[in-house]
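Question:
When you can, review this sequence-structure pair and walk me through the tokens.
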Amino acid sequence: MTKPVMITGVLLLFFSSLVKAEEPLVAPKPAEPVKEIDFRDPIPFGLPPVEYGLGEHSDPASRLDQELAARTLKLNYEPQWGYLRDVLKALQISESSQLMVFSKTALNPRIINPENPRVVYFNDDVYVGWVPGAEKMEFAAVDPLKGTIFYELAVKASNEPRFIRSERCLACHGGDSSLRIPGLLVRSFLTDQHGRPISGYSQISHDKPLEKRWGGWYVTGTHADMTHLGNLFNRDAIEEAKTNPALRSNLKHIDQFVDTSKYLNPHSDLVAHLILDHQVHGHNLITRASMEQQLGLRSDVEQQLVRYLLFLDEAPLAGPLQGTTDYQTSFEQSGKRDARGRSLKDFDLQTKLFRHRLSYLIYTDSFKKMPSAARFRILKNIYAFLTAPAAELEPSWDVDPDAFPVQERQAILQIVTETLDNLPEFWTVKK
């Protein structure tokens, strides 16, 4: 059930303040009056002005393909890895983001299994899938206005490697679990010894407790007494885990399950898992909010997005949690920092994911370039939460004031003020 996001007074600010927005629109205003819809309803993303599948794109994979076409970039081919290393470098994706998934819930199910998992690499805007023995690499890149665009790149050596659009992914990536828009998926399914799903969850986000996550995935890292579904396959192990929940937990390597020499590194880092779980649903909410604005539709997606960006329903952690690579360090180093050295990418990993609970996704193109009216309303409500008196948090936001102290909210205000471009005029920090 969707929780309340704002009181009536804040809601009125949505509409009374729109005329003050100064950011230029990046999509045309809808020709039709706003139509109220349910969040679960599909939206016609194939129609103008979105026109998914048509027109030019500005996602990272598309830009990389344009460089290949213009011959301003060359990808080097390696017999074992194909174009993998060079593609990751070109897209500025860390190899330490590698995550291994062995459930047969994606392309290439014939060759994916616990001994030959698929790997996923990602940064803030683009995701790369690779399987030893597959003929193609897979890409999911977020376009600011059109949602997630899917591509394939042949693994074989070529003088002119090119990214090819693929819409077959929409059979799964356009349904309920991705919010009825071309979106992203993170699932958690326990599997048999071959990687065939038995049971699980079709949508994972930071709101899901850890004990429900990572079924069908390998996980390397330590997580104290917390449990999860990672590293479990075959019915015997699943049955044993019911009486021994710590089975295959706190693993620092997975060499006993996989010949890791087939991969760029032998890890499936726990901290990278946590980021993926947060990021995917966040991207989908941003895309849905953007498309609704473009199409003249209105559901409660913006309210849900505000709560999500602020981690108001985040499942608590009981750390300390630690990965097995330098992913945590590289992720933090990529964050924008204020004059005090603080960033929205600073981890906590004790009781919560981040020290300052406002998502770094506000820096992505998908958020910055969404239609300005929607962006304005979302920032207005984030600001309303961050500046609300403590006494208003519980009745208006269903948030315990002690769980989101004023010191943290003030720090977030200051970080955003100094690091986010094109802030509306209302965003000020009291000295």
